[in-house]
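Example 9 (inverse folding). The structure is encoded as follows.
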């Protein structure tokens, strides 16, 4: 995917408008502080000249005191305004970083197309965008403040140039030339930082993943039982070392450039002192002019140094803003193609797939290859196959999470690309192998809505139908009990079977016309698995249902079975048809059959065992 490029002026307009909508006062104070900073610097340079001139010219003491009080008062007012602007803009920066930039970033993560979220080079862009909003020195939230420093430096630079040229025009090119080397150093440093940004983003992605595993509750058992701590810590240390190599080169370059800048600055100050002493001795220069000229040279040096540093940081910051904007401009999941062709078979089929092909990025062959089948309204379908056959990918294609490379998918007679995402997702309720729990109440985990919108009567009906009501009733806070113990000290825990019942209650609450179960019972024993599937069959009567599994407990009560192998449909029919065919399905079923027998006597014993629960 080709990413749009953004120049400095485009980024400045974008960030300014973003801040302006959020907090106009923040923008106005930043602009005001440009002039306050420069005026304060000028007053500081001019005040000593006024005092010394008054003394040298023997001005009336009362006049001298009035002049001093006037300028000191102006200086105090400017100092107050400076501190006020600084205090407000610092607070504004923190709020903007959290409210504007981070909120937009996480909102984009939720809204972006699933394929972009999980796969491809966008993962790197996602990491670069997060770095862009997290960097306190040159991150996107600092862009306006860096511009305030830049324009203050430009205005201060011009102001002190005008003062210096009153005494000697040659001061200006000499001073600018002395700082050119420093500017060149900053340019080289920024070029290096831009070059390594992508590599650092890859390292940080790995580090984030590895460090997450150390605190993830699901990984804690494996880490301890398999003694993975050394392996995991070594991997973390390797990535920290790799990142440190880049940081060390960057820090060394920054240190060298700062040393060069300081040497040049003090060389300029020493040269200015010597020159001004010579001028004072050979001409009628007043002490006030001497002080003003020396102060102007010092101020000029400071402003020029700030100007070079600000330019360097703004170049880096502008690249960070570009990364952030490119990430925000990734396609959202609700983009639809209005030119999609629909089918005239709406009345008959809930789902139709025609020659669907899909490949993951950089894969050698398609995961799905020319997949075609139809599912009638109210039909129960089992999609089976060994691990890696493409079953879960097929689910993601049907639900619109992934987009096929070619071929067509129709839901209720409409091409899937003509739906907006919210409209499409309302048609599905899904239960996946990995159960996702949120650190809130049981009722909110079922309804996935704000409390004021929850239908508690429906919650209780769903808990009863899913056979979880007794468990919930035994809890101190009933359905208001909290989940996820890692974040809530008083949270409750569920067994694997109870979690599946909670998922069933969640799917019943949504009450969508199409139910998809993708390996939801992989962690259960065969008897518990069969019981769960029978419960799903009972509660999904008259709904279109798709059961995905590499284990065959779900197949006998389904109307039709589709067997995938190497991304293709190799067999299709009822359980009885496929057993008579004596092909791949029959072979898999017979191999798994012993796990569903009661002592090897009854092939259907796993169905009978339902009565034990």
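The amino acid assigned to each position is listed next.
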């Amino acid at each position: 995917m080709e990413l749009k490029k953004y120049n400095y002026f485009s980024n400045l307009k974008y960030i300014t408008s973003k801040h302006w909508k959020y907090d106009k006062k923040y923008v106005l104070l930043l602009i005001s502080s440009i002039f306050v900073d420069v005026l304060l610097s000028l007053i500081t340079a001019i005040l000593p000249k006024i005092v010394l001139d008054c003394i040298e010219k023997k001005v009336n003491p009362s006049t001298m005191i009035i002049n001093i009080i006037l300028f000191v008062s102006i200086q105090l007012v400017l100092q107050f305004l400076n501190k006020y602007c600084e205090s407000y803009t610092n607070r504004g920066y923190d709020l903007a970083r959290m409210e504007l930039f981070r909120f937009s970033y996480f909102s984009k993560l939720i809204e972006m197309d699933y394929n972009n979220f999980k796969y491809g080079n966008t993962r790197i862009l996602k990491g670069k965008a997060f770095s862009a909003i997290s960097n306190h020195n040159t991150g996107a939230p600092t862009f306006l403040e860096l511009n305030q420093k830049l324009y203050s430096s430009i205005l201060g630079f011009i102001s002190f140039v005008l003062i210096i040229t009153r005494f000697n025009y040659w001061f200006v090119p000499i001073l600018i030339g002395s700082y050119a080397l420093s500017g060149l150093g900053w340019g080289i440093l920024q070029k290096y930082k831009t070059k390594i940004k992508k590599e650092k983003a890859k390292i940080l992605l790995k580090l984030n993943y590895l460090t997450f595993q150390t605190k993830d509750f699901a990984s804690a058992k494996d880490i301890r039982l398999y003694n993975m701590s050394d392996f995991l810590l070594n991997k973390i240390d390797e990535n920290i070392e790799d990142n440190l190599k880049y940081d060390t080169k960057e820090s060394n370059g920054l240190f060298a450039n700062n040393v060069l800048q300081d040497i040049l600055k003090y060389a300029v100050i020493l040269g200015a002192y010597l020159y001004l002493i010579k001028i004072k001795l050979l001409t009628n220069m007043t002490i006030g002019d001497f002080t003003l000229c020396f102060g102007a040279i010092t101020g000029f040096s400071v402003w020029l140094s700030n100007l070079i540093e600000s330019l360097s940081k703004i170049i880096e910051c502008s690249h960070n803003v570009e990364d952030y904007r490119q990430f925000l401009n990734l396609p959202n999941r609700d983009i639809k193609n209005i030119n999609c062709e629909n089918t005239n078979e709406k009345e008959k089929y809930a789902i139709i797939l025609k020659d669907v092909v899909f490949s993951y990025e950089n894969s050698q062959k398609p995961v799905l290859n020319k997949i075609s089948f139809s599912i009638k309204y109210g039909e129960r379908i089992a999609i089976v196959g060994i691990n890696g056959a493409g079953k879960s990918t097929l689910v993601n294609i049907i639900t619109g999470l992934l987009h096929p490379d070619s071929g067509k998918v129709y839901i209720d007679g409409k091409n899937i690309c003509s739906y907006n995402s919210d409209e499409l997702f309302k048609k599905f309720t899904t239960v996946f192998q990995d159960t996702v729990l949120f650190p809130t109440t049981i009722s909110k985990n079922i309804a996935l809505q704000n409390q004021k919108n929850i239908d508690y009567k429906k919650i209780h009906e769903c808990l009863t139908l899913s056979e979880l009501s007794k468990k919930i009733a035994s809890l101190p806070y009933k359905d208001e009990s909290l989940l996820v113990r890692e974040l809530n000290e008083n949270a409750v825990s569920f067994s694997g079977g109870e979690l599946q019942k909670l998922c069933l209650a969640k799917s019943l609450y949504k009450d969508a016309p199409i139910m998809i179960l993708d390996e939801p019972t992989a962690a259960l024993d065969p008897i518990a698995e069969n019981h769960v599937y029978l419960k799903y069959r009972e509660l999904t009567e008259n709904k279109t249902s798709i059961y995905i599994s590499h284990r065959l407990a779900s197949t006998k009560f389904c109307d039709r079975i589709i067997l995938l192998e190497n991304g293709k449909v190799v067999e299709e029919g009822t359980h009885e048809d496929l057993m008579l065919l004596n092909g791949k399905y029959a072979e898999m079923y017979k191999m798994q059959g012993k796990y569903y027998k009661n002592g090897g006597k009854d092939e259907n014993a796993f169905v009978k065992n339902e009565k034990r629960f």
